[in-house]
Amino acid sequence: MMQQINFDQVFDDMAAKLKAQTAHITTGTPVMIGIHSGGVWVAEQLHKRLGLRDPLGHLDISFYRDDFTRIGMNPQVKPSHLPFNVDDRHIILVDDVLHTGRTIRAALNEIFDYGRPAAVLLAALIDRGGRELPIEANVVGMRIELQSDQNIKLKGPTPLSLHIAEKDK
Amino acid sequence: MSVKNFQLDDQGRLRHFLTIEGLKRQMLVDILDTAESFSGVVDQAVKKVPLLRGKTVVNLFFESSTRTRTTFELAAKRLSADVLNINVAVSATTKGETLLDTLHNLQAMHCDMFVVRHAESGAAHFIARHVAPHISVINAGDGRHAHPTQAMLDAFTIRRCKGDFYPLNVAIVGDILHSRVARSQIHALTTLGVNEVRVIAPKTLLPKDVETLGVHVYHDLKQGLRDVDVIIMLRLQNERMQGQLLPSEHEYFQLYGLTEDTLAYAKPDAIVMHPGPINRGVEIDSQVADGPRSVILQQVTHGTAVRMAVMSMCMGSHIKAEGSTA
Question: Residues B196-233, buried b or exposed e (16+ Cβ, 10 A)?
Fold first, then answer.
């Protein structure tokens, strides 16, 4: 486990940045979608702080991964649930760790299969670099430098904690 | 020493889906859980996911069945696979080509999965043993042997309606002897741990050793339906009537047909199921088939999600495990 992190402070800062970034929206209120599972835990915190009207949506991008032909079926798929119409809505997409960008690409593909949003903002608790696709977050909680053979994982939901491990160990 | 299940790969993942027999409870639960996720796909504006994009699924039907073929086709298309429908009864084999020749030709067209319906028990196993290692075979009904996806969609419907399997008493009514559906249902329900599976039928429509499957036998419908939570009615094939296994359709309905009156012996919240197509007035009265306790159309809806789950799990097993990325 990493050193103690004040998650409340990090979420407060992220919520303040998101508030500023969505202040210009005049066509309805934004909606929030968390990516299963860590992204949902982060989204629950941000959703509460922003006081969003619509319930939180959650996505499991297992059926949209580009590595199905390499790793097969995820045995613990959770159903995606978007309790609102995404057409013309401003969406705040939330994940715990932003790394290669492939998860976000899959999430965007899935969201667009539900409809055509007006815009999508990306919020990530941790940006660990190592992008393989041209995807960047609008709001980042923390930037953490890691070796390519290391993984970072958010464990939760209560309490939340960050863990760094060597890959395949 | 446990015998290796031919349907599973070296890591215990589903490679073919030929029968429920021999599969562990957790595998059946995994199928149901995965199907639960796929059931949400119909809520999307685009009712498909890209999982099997670039894969080719062949519906190889040696015996005609519009409904089963259609649900497999829809499942494959919702997974973004390309689908070939081959009605073998009216194609190659009637021109003298052997089954293995047909298979080899389809393999040469780079197909990835065969969904097989055949009148002979064991046909899907035979095909699975002769296909190339990268191909999965799904049994869509073989003779009197098995119809595993039908049994799983029934189990899925029961779980959706009743939650837990453990406290349930389930009655299967009708032609158990000739029914591949009943055999697969019995294996699925006993593996999933229901309290009691009952079979209700005349002696002429029951296999001799049916008790060895772990079921209780009843010949009286009212007695058998007492306090059950789930009633599964089986289709009565017309040829059984002509084969003198039963006196008449009318008499069968009098003794084993499900009506409002006989349904009253089951629990007040019991659900009524039927694999379809229904013979109204033979196995089941229209009032019951269309009544509030009937979940027959829900079974049809769930058929697609369950078949998507099985197809994706089988295709996923051909894949060498590597790391994933975020």
Answer: bbbbbbbeebbbeebeebebeebeebeebbeebbbbbb
Burial (Cβ within 10 Å: 0-12, 13-18, ≥19) of residue B79: buried
Asked if A155 and A163 count as a contact pair (C-beta separation under 8 A), the reply is yes
Q: What is the ipTM of this complex?
A: 0.87
pLDDT tens, residue by residue, A47-91:
999 999 999 999 999 999 888 877 887 777 888 999 999 999 999
DSSP state of B74: H
Smallest Cβ distance to B319: which of A70, A97, A99? A70
Whether chain A has a CB inside 8 Å of the CB on B321: the answer is yes
On chain B, the residues whose CB falls within 8 A of the CB of A60 are 37
Residue in A79, A102, A103 nearest the CB of B37: A79
Q: Is A64 on the interface with B (CB under 8 A)?
A: yes
| Cα within 13 Å of Cα(B135), Cβ side | 25
**Is B26 touching A (CB cutoff 8 A)?**
no
pLDDT > 90? residue B176: yes
Q: Which two tokens stand for residue B233?
A: 């009615």
Structural tokens at position A34: 């968390």
pLDDT tens track for B60-95 = 998 888 889 999 999 999 999 999 998 876 665 666
Q: Of B39, B40, B50, which has the smallest distance from its Cβ to A64's Cβ?
A: B50
| Amino acid, res. B229 | D
Higher local confidence (pLDDT), A7 or B317: A7
Judge: A72–B30 Cβ closer than 8 Å, yes or no.
no
pTM above 0.80, yes or no: yes
